[in-house]
What we know:
The chain is of the alpha+beta class.
Amino acid sequence: xxxxxxxxxxxxxxxxxxEIVYNVVTDVENYPSWVPWCLDVKILERLxxxxxxxxxxxxxxxxxxxxxxxxxxxxSHDVKVISNSALFNGRLSNRWIxxxxxxxxxxxxxxxIDFEFQxxxxxxTSQIFFSDVKSRMIRELENRCKVLSQTSAKNGIINS
Length: 160
């Protein structure tokens, strides 16, 4: 018997204010600009103020798949993404948790992911890239915060 689920949990101090980090993660439509292998995101429906249904397209080399997820926002605290897609054997969840860091310009950020592919081929293939997913998600989040803060700083100089 082999465990076919993939799980990862990581916590890191990010040197940006909690509000900035939270805003990057909640800007779901811009995931293709920083989330590894995310090719496209379409908002299908706003279920309420803090819950949206999205279609996400992911790709890795020659593989490309789309699936729907429900994204639940808990303002300035956490973001949960759940998919009941058959692609993931009804099992894909990730969660971002944001806690104030030791200074106002820092944020403890926790990333959790848990998924299982239905297809044995995708399951086998995912073994190849899962270690990369684990090492890149928070790093890419940090990079996105840096890019946005530099853009904001430049815009502030231009507008003054």
